[in-house]
Design brief:
The chain is an all-alpha fold and 274 residues long. It is built from twelve helices and two strands, in the order H-E-E-H-H-H-H-H-H-H-H-H-H-H.
Length: 274
């Protein structure tokens, strides 16, 4: 009986252990391969592992002629401009969607989701054609605009949830004490919604800095970002350079996701989509 009970207990614990192991393999397997390529000096078939490690390719990536610094600057600058534009539109839109009784509120929220509902390739191809007629192809303005299209999805939906989670009794108390609507918004509403707005900004930033398709069709060859540099390196068989670029893109993603976990609270998440 004791052996049978132990066997049943072991079988019950086996499935969760296998699932955790599979998840760890799916997540850390590609990352391990990425790290190996980033520091591999020589790795030729049929060797299973690199035969020589070093930092020679890191020096190649960051030398002035390689263009990595320019690509990094372009990626960060475009991402910051995309955040500024997206949040400038999302804050008033989110406040209106959270507070006003709009007759077509559900339809408006759905419209902001449409860019994510269709394949990005045909959308960006048509946008590139429109921008070509407007003279926006190959410009920072055009790239920022095309990055803001998917960025508004995160910005508006999270901003709406952030403003919906604000305690209205505090706003009413401030108004009863004589505070004007603008001051109530500045001193009461905005500070409470600020963590959600920070999380929305981070999502927009990460989406923009990783954006490839829109930049490829609207910005290239005049504007090169890190995803474009990584694509060119991988297509040319320079897997070490592509892996190093991918690691550079991975750093802000991991750091900002830790910040999002701190700022995006459960009360805000529960109101997304309402």
């Amino acid at each position: 009986m004791a052996f049978a009970s132990l066997a049943r207990r072991g079988a019950a614990n086996l499935l969760p252990a296998v699932m955790i192991g599979l998840c760890a393999f799916v997540v850390f397997g590609p990352l391990t391969n990425l790290f190996l390529w980033a520091f591999a000096e020589k790795w030729f078939f049929p060797a299973r592992y690199p035969t020589e490690f070093g930092f020679d390719f890191w020096h190649r990536v960051f030398r002035p002629r390689a263009g990595a610094w320019t690509s990094l600057f372009n990626s960060v600058w475009i991402a910051l401009a995309t955040v500024a534009l997206s949040m400038a539109l999302a804050v008033p839109a989110g406040y209106a969607l959270a507070r006003l009784k709009l007759p077509a509120r559900a339809a408006i929220m759905l419209i902001f989701l449409l860019p994510q509902a269709f394949p990005s390739l045909p959308i960006f191809v048509n946008i590139a054609q429109m921008f070509y007629g407007l003279g926006l192809n190959g410009t920072y303005t055009g790239v920022v605009l095309v990055h803001s299209l998917p960025g508004l999805v995160y910005a508006v939906w999270i901003a709406t949830a952030a403003f919906s989670a604000v305690d209205r009794t505090m706003e009413e108390a401030a108004r009863n004490l004589g505070a004007a609507p603008l001051r109530t918004f500045r001193d009461i509403t905005l500070p409470q919604a600020f963590p959600g707005l920070v999380a929305a900004s981070i999502f927009v930033f990460l989406d923009s800095i990783d954006e490839f398709t829109g930049t490829f069709f609207v910005g290239t060859p005049d504007i090169t970002t890190l995803p474009i540099l990584m694509f060119n390196a991988s297509m040319g068989g320079n897997y070490q350079i592509a892996a190093i670029t991918a690691l550079i893109l991975l750093i802000p993603s991991i750091g900002f996701m830790l910040v999002i976990e701190r700022f995006l609270k459960a009360d805000v998440l529960s109101r997304i989509g309402r």
